[in-house]
UniProtKB/TrEMBL annotation:
<dbReference type="InterPro" id="IPR015955">
    <property type="entry name" value="Lactate_DH/Glyco_Ohase_4_C"/>
</dbReference>
<dbReference type="GO" id="GO:0004553">
    <property type="term" value="F:hydrolase activity, hydrolyzing O-glycosyl compounds"/>
</dbReference>
<comment type="subunit">
    <text>Homotetramer.</text>
</comment>
<dbReference type="GO" id="GO:0016616">
    <property type="term" value="F:oxidoreductase activity, acting on the CH-OH group of donors, NAD or NADP as acceptor"/>
</dbReference>
<keyword id="KW-0520">NAD</keyword>
<keyword id="KW-0170">Cobalt</keyword>
<feature type="binding site">
    <location>
        <position position="189"/>
    </location>
    <ligand>
        <name>Mn(2+)</name>
    </ligand>
</feature>
<dbReference type="InterPro" id="IPR019802">
    <property type="entry name" value="GlycHydrolase_4_CS"/>
</dbReference>
<feature type="site" description="Increases basicity of active site Tyr">
    <location>
        <position position="129"/>
    </location>
</feature>
<keyword id="KW-0408">Iron</keyword>
<dbReference type="GO" id="GO:0005975">
    <property type="term" value="P:carbohydrate metabolic process"/>
</dbReference>
<dbReference type="Pfam" id="PF02056">
    <property type="entry name" value="Glyco_hydro_4"/>
</dbReference>
<keyword id="KW-0479">Metal-binding</keyword>
<comment type="similarity">
    <text>Belongs to the glycosyl hydrolase 4 family.</text>
</comment>
<dbReference type="Pfam" id="PF11975">
    <property type="entry name" value="Glyco_hydro_4C"/>
</dbReference>
<feature type="active site" description="Proton acceptor">
    <location>
        <position position="273"/>
    </location>
</feature>
<feature type="binding site">
    <location>
        <position position="167"/>
    </location>
    <ligand>
        <name>substrate</name>
    </ligand>
</feature>
Length: 451
């Protein structure tokens, strides 16, 4: 890899290089995603950083890529940004010369996400995009593609930073740091940022003034401390949760009510996805009663979004009235890229090698934790140890995901079954073998490593 840099317990740091006069190229792999327009709007908030540069969109979906390309040009024009928009079906062309590469491919599309959800449910297991056996199957499809992308980036754009949104993000990060330990790579998830956003609304302050002490893994961690302008406001939030807890317990279990309940019970703010583990039976019953899965709903919803995007692309002053996802999603990606482009040290929750920041997890493996990000890389912020029971659950989830990463990288069915047995949302043999085999068969087109 070109350029000086190092990976250590203090994170990843490159030797800063002069960039004056550079024509910066930003690339989005998975650029036809319905998430892309809002990410572009986020980038345009700091468009002066990229003046004279290029925004390159890459995807294998040519029809939707053309829609997003037209919309991107309209948004850039309306913002008065000096930014050239290009689009290509050629991934190597998109990567070459890039300085920042945002990765968000969805291997198999929403149709295969629906299989990730439906096949486990058929056997009485939670079907979810990133958790349990559904998340394991998504990792089998995504990890080989992401490793190809990282290899291509190191060859064609060795100084580029990869900012990853591809799910299941934690397992993707684990695979990348195993295969490419020196990669300029940061994994992201918008859940911690969504927590900041919700807490900001509660406290009636800009969510950017909120910082989290977060320790765990992707979709499995705890916030031990919430800071507002550096002041610890966790006790204030605990009083709020204690007051709302009885009401939340009477309402249907969802992301917000589940988060409040867990906060009240554990005294720490949970990653909202922890509800799948602590309220597994209730959530499974709800999923089994549903007329369609989340993916089946999204297949219809996303087509509506593309129609809206096509209409907006033709407007003189384009305004997005429909969105895919929470504002925290686009804000996080654009703010991380801006912090690195401007060499502006900023605190985020990221995914990378834990390097001891999360005490109960192996330091050489991927974790999710608070860190300072700037133009040279990332520096972990060591987190306090979690209580024993909470730490044990996260360690078990992590151990099962690490096994599944090996299964995806090696094409090893036996490791996939072992991971399924160990995972708290998995199953004992022989059911684990049966579900794994059905998922392998359903996704065979995208799993050449298992052949």
């Amino acid at each position: 890899m070109a350029g000086a840099g190092e990976v250590s317990g203090k994170g990843w740091h490159a030797t800063p290089q002069a960039r004056e006069g550079d024509r910066m190229k930003l690339t989005i792999i998975g650029g036809a995603s319905a998430y892309t327009p809002d990410i572009i709007l986020g980038l345009l908030q700091d468009h002066a950083l990229y003046a004279g540069g290029e925004l390159c969109l890459h995807d294998i979906d040519g029809a939707n890529l053309r829609v997003i390309e037209r919309l991107a040009r309209a948004l850039v024009r309306a913002a008065g940004a000096d930014l050239r928009v290009t689009a290509t079906l050629d991934r190597a062309e998109a990567i070459t010369g890039s300085r920042f590469i945002l990765t968000q491919p969805r291997v198999g599309g929403l149709q295969h996400r629906a299989l990730d959800e439906k096949i486990p449910l058929k056997h009485g297991l939670i079907g979810q995009e990133t958790l349990g056996l559904g998340g394991f199957a998504f990792a089998w499809r995504t990890i080989p593609v992401m490793l190809e992308i990282v290899e291509e980036v190191q060859r064609l754009a060795p100084e580029a930073w990869i900012i990853n949104y591809a799910n299941p993000a934690g397992m993707v990060t684990e695979a990348v740091i195993r295969r490419f330990p020196d990669a300029r790579f940061i994994g992201l998830c918008d859940m911690p940022t969504g927590l900041q956003w919700a807490i900001g609304r509660l406290l009636r302050v800009d969510y950017r003034r909120i910082a989290l002490d977060y320790a765990g893994i992707n979709h499995g961690g705890w916030v031990s401390r919430v800071l507002l302008d550096g002041e610890d406001v966790t006790a204030r939030l605990r009083r709020w949760a204690a007051a709302l807890g009885p009401v939340a317990s009477l309402l249907p279990l969802g992301e917000q009510t589940g988060t409040v309940r867990l906060f009240r019970q554990h005294g720490m703010v949970p990653d909202p996805y922890l509800r799948y583990y602590y309220y597994k039976d209730q959530i499974l019953k709800k999923l089994l009663r549903a007329e369609r899965t989340r993916a089946e709903f999204l297949i219809e919803r996303v087509q509506q979004l593309y129609r809206h995007y096509a209409d907006v692309a033709g407007q003189e002053q384009p305004v997005l009235k429909e969105h895919r996802g929470h504002p925290a999603h686009s804000d996080l990606a654009s703010q991380v890229i801006a912090a690195m482009a401007a060499n502006r040290p900023t605190r985020f929750v990221i995914q990378q090698r834990g390097a001891g920041a999360v005490r109960h997890l192996p330091p050489e493996e991927a974790a999710q934790f608070s860190a300072i990000v700037d133009g040279s890389g990332w520096t972990p912020i060591p987190q306090p140890a979690l209580p024993r029971k909470e730490a044990e659950l996260i360690a078990r989830i992590k151990a099962s995901e690490t096994l599944n990463v090996r299964a995806a990288m090696e094409g090893d069915r036996s490791l996939a079954v072992e991971a399924a047995e160990l995972n708290p949302l998995g199953a004992p043999r022989p059911l684990a073998e049966k579900v794994v085999d059905e998922l392998l068969a359903a996704h065979r087109k995208y799993l050449p490593q298992f052949a």
